[in-house]
Specification:
666 residues, alpha+beta, 9-stranded parallel sheet, 6-stranded antiparallel sheet, 15 helices, 25% strand
Length: 666
C-alpha cells in the first residue's frame, strides 16, 4: 500500500508517474515536525536494517552513517564523503516494522541513519515543501517493487550496449580511437564501444567535433563496419563564443539559466566561461535535446552526459572576490590563519553554494532559484537527451547514461557511478551500490572498471573486470596522466581476453535478466536478504549479491588474495570459467566455504534447481551465435529466456520469451 503526504508547496519533480491523492493526517511511522523546515524521526531497533539511497557511500545496510542528497562533483570518494553525484531519496526500514519512504524533495536532504544517535533515523531539510510517500508491504522486496511501479519503467538500452567498452580521458585524435579499436581487434579481446571524452570536441563545444576528424560520418561508419561504436560525451556547459550557433541560439531564445537580474548566468567549466541550458524549462529542454541529432546524423548511437550536477569550476563573481582578498593578503604580514583562509577561498571557488543560489530557472514563467531544485539538473539534462533521441529515432533505442541523477531519470537513461579511484575498496563500493541503484529504478549501471583516478595495477583491473562481467554497463575508463589501462597494455593478455570473453558468453543471460527486470519493474541485483529474509547470516552479507533469479555473485576485491570466503544460504552449484575455456561445475552445500579464485578465472553460483544459458565467446555482440547456446546448472531445470532484436522499442515479454531446459547429462 502506498500513501502520499504533502507538506507545504512541493516543486513538481515528475519523478512519480502514477497519480496519488494526498492523505490526511500524519504517517503511521515516525514523528514529523514542521516548526523549522521538515524533520522526520523514527526509533530504530537493534535488528532494523535500512536499505536504499541508490548511489550512496558505504554499505548495503545504511545504518551508522549520514548521507546528504546534494548532487556533488567530488572525485574523492573516501568513506567520510556524505554526498556523491546523485540524489535517490528512497529508503526501506526492515525489522519488526517494515516500510518504505520516498521523500520527493529536489534540494539538500539529510539522512542521519543512526549517525548522531545509533537508535534514531532522522531525515531533515530546510524547507517543509515536499511529498512524502509511505509504502507498506510484505517485505523489503515487495515494497521495492511497489516503488518501482509508481516511478515508471526503467530505461532500456540497445543490446550492443551490453558489450565491453574502452574509454580514457586523453584520447584526442582520430588516430587515438582507431588505435584502441585496432589493438583490441588484433589481440582478439572482445569490444563493442570506444568512448570519446571531452577532447574530441572543437574547444569543448557541445555537439561539435574537432577539425582533425574532417569527414566524421565516414569515420564513424568505418569503425562501425568493424562492429565498434563511438560513444561521445556531452557536457552541461555551453561555451560562450560568438559564432557558435548553439550559444547564439540559446541566448536569442532565452534558453539558458539566469541570474536574478535576468542576465544569463555565467560559470566556468572545461570550455572556459559557459551558460547552462535551462533544462527545467520544457522549451529549452526540447531545444537542447534536438541538438543530439547533429551527432546521430553522423551515425552516433550512444552518448554519456557529464558535468551535470552541474559542476562549476568558478564564476566571475567568485574570482572577483578572490582577487580582492588576494590584494589585501599581499599587503599584510601573513599569519597561519591568513594563509589557510586564502587557500580555502581559492579552493572554495568550485561548486560554491553561493553560486548555485545566484542561478535561476524559468519554470512556467516563474523564476526558481537553482539551489532549491539543484538535484534535478542532471535528471533533466538526460531527460532532454532521452526525449530528443526518441523524437529523432522513434523506433530505435540509443545508449544513454549520465553522471548526475535524481529518481525519475531512470526512465531516460542509465548512470555510471562517477570518478572513482584505482582502489581495492572501490570494487567493493561498486558492488554495494548495485542493489540500491536497482531499488531506485537504475538498471543500466556500472563503474569505471580499473578505477578512473590513480594508477591501476594488473591484478586490480582483472579483479574489477571479473565483477564488471555481470554489470550491464561494462566499461574500462581512466583519467589522463594516469597509467594507461587498456587491457592490451598488460602482460599475459590472454587473461583479459578470457575474462571479457566470459562476459560475452553470459550476455544472453545478462540481457534476459535486464529486460525482464525492466519490463516487470523488478530488480536485477538484490541483497541476499531479499531472497533469504529469514536467514540471519544472509541478511548481514554485504559482499555477495543475487543476480536475476538464478545466480549469486561473489567477486574477489582484496589485493593478493587467492580467493575468498563465501556464504551459501542454500546448496548451490559453483561454476568456474577456466582460462582454457572449460567450465567446471561443483555442487556445494549450504554454509561457509573458502573458494580459491585465480586471477584469470570468473566464478558464479547457480541456485538450487536453476540453470542459465551460455553461448560461445564472441568478439562483439553482433557476432554472438545463439545457435551455440547451451544450458549449465542443475539437471532437469528450466530457464525463461528473453531475447529480441536488441534495437527497436518493440518490447514484448510474452512474444520474446522461450523456456529452455537443462537436460539430464547422459
Amino acid at each position: 500500500m502506498i500513501k502520499k503526504y504533502t507538506y507545504g508547496t512541493p516543486f513538481s519533480t515528475e519523478s512519480v508517474t502514477e497519480p496519488f491523492a494526498a492523505s490526511e493526517g500524519m504517517p503511521e511511522f515516525g514523528v514529523i515536525h514542521l516548526q523549522e523546515g521538515f524533520s522526520f524521526t523514527y526509533k530504530l531497533r537493534d535488528e532494523d536494517v535500512v536499505y536504499g539511497l541508490g548511489e550512496a557511500n558505504r554499505g548495503i545496510n545504511k545504518r551508522g552513517y549520514q548521507y546528504i542528497s546534494n548532487n556533488s562533483d567530488n572525485p574523492h570518494h573516501h568513506e567520510d564523503v556524505y554526498s556523491l553525484y546523485a540524489a535517490h531519496n528512497f529508503i526501506i526500514v526492515s525489522g519488526e516494522q517494515t516500510f518504505g519512504l520516498y521523500f520527493d524533495y529536489p534540494s539538500t536532504l539529510t539522512f542521519d541513519v543512526g549517525y548522531t544517535r545509533s537508535d534514531e533515523l532522522h531525515i531533515f531539510c530546510e524547507r517543509a515543501d515536499l511529498d512524502l510517500y509511505v509504502i507498506t508491504g510484505e517485505n523489503p522486496y515487495d515494497i521495492t517493487k511497489q516503488f518501482r511501479k509508481m516511478i515508471g519503467r526503467s530505461y532500456i538500452a540497445p543490446k550492443f550496449a551490453f558489450g565491453f567498452g574502452q574509454s580514457r580521458w586523453g584520447y584526442k585524435t582520430p588516430e587515438d580511437f582507431v588505435t584502441v579499436a585496432e589493438k583490441y581487434r588484433e589481440n582478439h579481446i572482445p569490444i563493442d564501444m570506444v568512448y570519446m571524452d571531452i577532447d574530441y570536441m572543437d574547444n569543448y563545444k557541445d555537439f561539435t567535433v574537432n577539425e582533425e576528424f574532417r569527414d566524421f560520418p565516414q569515420y564513424v561508419e568505418n569503425l562501425k563496419k568493424d562492429h565498434i561504436r563511438l560513444v561521445p560525451i556531452i557536457d552541461a556547459g555551453v561555451k560562450i563564443e560568438d559564432g557558435y550557433d548553439v550559444y547564439e541560439e540559446g541566448v536569442e531564445k532565452n534558453y539558458f539559466c539566469k541570474r536574478q537580474d535576468g542576465s544569463d548566468f555565467v560559470a566556468a567549466v572545461w570550455p572556459g566561461y559557459t551558460h547552462f541550458p535551462d533544462v527545467l524549462n520544457p522549451d529549452a529542454r526540447k531545444w537542447f535535446g534536438e541538438k543530439y541529432k547533429r551527432l546521430t546524423d553522423a551515425g552516433i548511437e550512444g552518448f554519456w552526459n557529464d558535468m551535470n550536477e552541474p559542476a562549476i569550476f568558478f564564476t566571475p563573481e567568485g574570482v572577483k572576490d578572490v582577487k580582492k582578498a588576494m590584494k589585501a593578503f599581499i599587503d599584510k604580514e601573513e599569519t597561519v590563519q591568513d594563509v589557510w583562509a586564502i587557500g580555502a577561498q581559492v579552493t572554495g571557488l568550485a561548486n560554491n553554494a553561493e553560486d548555485y543560489a545566484s542561478m535561476y530557472h524559468n519554470v512556467d514563467g516563474k523564476m526558481v532559484r537553482h539551489d532549491q531544485v539543484h538535484n534535478l539538473f542532471g535528471y533533466n539534462m538526460t531527460r532532454a537527451a532521452g526525449e530528443g533521441l526518441r523524437e529523432i529515432s522513434p523506433d530505435k533505442r540509443c545508449l544513454l547514461f549520465s553522471r548526475s541523477s535524481y529518481i525519475g531519470m531512470h526512465r531516460y537513461g542509465g548512470i555510471w557511478t562517477g570518478d572513482n579511484k584505482s582502489w581495492w575498496s572501490h570494487i567493493l563500493l561498486n558492488l554495494k551500490m548495485l542493489p540500491s541503484l536497482n531499488m531506485c529504478g537504475f538498471l543500466y549501471t556500472g563503474a569505471d572498471l580499473g578505477g578512473f583516478g590513480c594508477n591501476t595495477t594488473r591484478d586490480l583491473l582483472l579483479r574489477w573486470l571479473a565483477l564488471g562481467v555481470f554489470t550491464p554497463l561494462m566499461r574500462d575508463h581512466s583519467c589522463e596522466n594516469t597509467r594507461e589501462q587498456e587491457c592490451y597494455q598488460f602482460e599475459h593478455m590472454e587473461d583479459f581476453r578470457h575474462i571479457i570473453g566470459v562476459r560475452y558468453r553470459l550476455i544472453p543471460y545478462i540481457y534476459s535478466e535486464y529486460m525482464k527486470a525492466a519490463l516487470t519493474d523488478d530488480m536485477m541485483f538484490k541483497p541476499l536478504a531479499f531472497e533469504y529474509p529469514e536467514d540471519r547470516m544472509a541478511v548481514n552479507v554485504e559482499d555477495q549479491l543475487m543476480l536475476g533469479n538464478e545466480i549469486m555473485i561473489a567477486p574477489v576485491y582484496t589485493q593478493n588474495a587467492i580467493g575468498r570466503y563465501v556464504y551459501l544460504p542454500e546448496a548451490m552449484m559453483l561454476v568456474r570459467f577456466c582460462p582454457d575455456g572449460k567450465i567446471e561445475q561443483t555442487e556445494m552445500p549450504k554454509g561457509h566455504h573458502f573458494v580459491e579464485v585465480p586471477l584469470n578465472e570468473v566464478i558464479l553460483f547457480i541456485r538450487q534447481g536453476k540453470c542459465i544459458p551460455l553461448v560461445d565467446a564472441a568478439e562483439c555482440v553482433d557476432e554472438i551465435d545463439m545457435d551455440s547456446l547451451q544450458m549449465i546448472g542443475y539437471e532437469n531445470s528450466t530457464y525463461q529466456l528473453y531475447d529480441d532484436d536488441g534495437y527497436t522499442r518493440a518490447y514484448d515479454l510474452e512474444k520474446s520469451t522461450v523456456w529452455l531446459k537443462k537436460e539430464e547429462n547422459k
